[in-house]
Amino acid sequence: FAPHVLSRSAGGIVPALIPFRGADDDADELRAALAEADPHVIVVFRPEALPVGAMDGIDVPVLGVITEPLPRADRNPHPNYDYNLAELRRLDRGNVDRVACVDPNSWTAAAAVVPIWRALPLPVDDRFYRAPTPSRRPPRIVFIGHSTMHREESLVSLKHEFDLPHYAHALMGDELREVLHGADVGLNVHGEQWVRLFEHSVLLHLAAGQLVVTEVLEPLYGLEPGIDVLQVSDRYELNLRVHQLMQMPDMHDRIRIRGHHKSRQFAASKVWPRVIGDLFADVAAFGTERQVGAATVR
To answer: Closest Cα to residue 202, out of 224, 170, 175?
Structure first.
């Protein structure tokens, strides 16, 4: 989640990122790190991973962010949805004051577990923004995302025909920025064929000035297919679009420029100060059910 938080101060926020990966890590170490950081507010990605009571005694607002899609009545059933919901049911409501979700289509399922405050896509750290530049010939195309059967089936023929690097893991920080800024086109293929969502990487590619060629996004969060992104229905259309771009790298420059312009409203320096300000105001106005008790963090 590092690409989606502030890497430097903005809007009155001085950020600090504390890694915590769930039950395999020591909750005492997390609390010690929080005490050292002495925060005024805490944002927790995947709050269901926090051990029960991890935030006991911490008297600052805690915002949990649910990042995974959940079942919905009009969605085709899928084991991923069921797994994500089972994980969410582990959430200790005493660890959070408010909860936001990245996928608004998951609102109803999530609200059955914990009240949902709002929905928003993950913002993009400002250091990844770069104005679009003329495309290389042939264009440099990249895919960033862990490997799944659907992704490999969708990309295998393109990998054989073209120089299409696939970064499956461990791409972070300056290295991630260099890869993004060194490419002209970013592909977005969902992890599973029937699991549609708004992938976190879409805004990253747009912010870096790339043309985004993506499978169907649900929701679109204001992006317009054919205007901000180039949307494809399946791997065959994806293959066609890539072949066209190799022949005419600038054929969708209008979409590329417009998509980057749209992405600027999702810059972390704009989004997080507003969200945190709203969080303080909401907790002050309506209180919280979380029992703080004796404060260990100011």
So the answer is: 224
